[in-house]
Design brief:
- Helix 4 links the parallel strand 1 and strand 2.
- The chain is built from eleven helices and seven strands.
- It has a single domain, classed as Rossmann fold (3-Layer(aba) Sandwich).
């Protein structure tokens, strides 16, 4: 069993997205999925790294045509447990680095909402992104999620009092970019890293979005909010989540691309 399998066999991803502060990432992602699908008639949707199906199952239960590719068997088992057999969903165990079982230009929307931050080399990231672009129709949308560097430095390295440990283990570059390898589970990006990957692909960026904004910095406060206050927080978040001066400080971002 590798590090990733061990992590997802024990990590409760469902609860993370269902907490009040975790809902912000989920609600933001859903908002931009809807935006990407706007105007499409009976779109074909692919989610690469579908996890436990938080997005794929929701879309399939709305009657949409979904293909869900997931690497970890435990996650597939959880995903399938949510289905009643009436959904238009095809669940496949597969790796984001090799989607050769899927044809070119088949999907109106391809979502890669987890795999890229479990890849540790530029070559692997470009391979996964190239595969996502390949299977997307010309003019189709690709949504790619990233975990960002600066929130980890602020919240974990300093906020969690791990500076001495991180420095001792040589896990920071001289310009404060976190170094990652598989045992750390998550690889972290800056906006310029995302820009650099996009420049290698036949795509144009439509938007780069802060998926959760300040949610993790203020999670205790947000989790205490009553429903009206949380609704107002979401109004604020949606009004600021595309601001370029704030995106790099978000824990998660979504890169929204159009295939040329």
């Amino acid at each position: 069993m590798n590090y990733l399998e061990k992590y997802y066999n024990t990590h409760d991803e469902e609860s993370r997205l269902l907490s009040r502060h975790g809902q912000i990432e989920y609600l933001t992602t859903v908002k931009y999925i809807r935006e990407c699908l706007s105007g499409s008639s009976d779109p074909r949707i692919l989610e690469v790294g579908a996890g436990t199906g938080r997005y794929s199952v929701t879309l399939a239960k709305e009657g949409l045509d979904v293909t869900a590719v997931e690497l970890i068997k435990h996650n597939i088992d959880v995903l399938k447990s949510k289905l009643d057999g009436s959904e238009r969903i095809n669940v496949i165990q597969g790796n984001a680095l090799d989607l050769s079982f899927l044809p070119d230009g088949a999907f109106d929307l391809t979502m890669v909402l987890g795999p890229v931050y479990h890849l540790y080399t530029r070559e692997d990231k470009l391979q996964a992104l190239s595969e996502a672009v390949r299977v997307t129709k010309p003019g189709g949308r690709i949504m790619v999620a990233y975990c960002m560097n600066e929130p980890t430095v602020i919240q974990y390295v300093f906020g969690g009092d791990h500076l001495e440990e991180i420095v001792a283990n040589d896990m920071l570059t001289s310009d404060w970019h976190c170094k990652s390898e598989p045992k750390e589970i998550i690889d972290l990006a800056r906006t310029e890293d995302i820009d650099s990957l996009d420049a290698e692909l036949p795509v144009e960026r439509l938007k780069l979005v802060a998926a959760d904004g300040a949610a993790h910095y203020l999670k205790e406060m947000i989790d205490r909010m009553d429903a009206p206050t949380f609704s107002k927080w979401m109004e604020y978040h949606f009004s600021t989540c595309e601001r370029s001066d704030l995106i790099g400080a978000s824990n998660h971002t979504i890169d929204i691309l159009r295939k040329k």
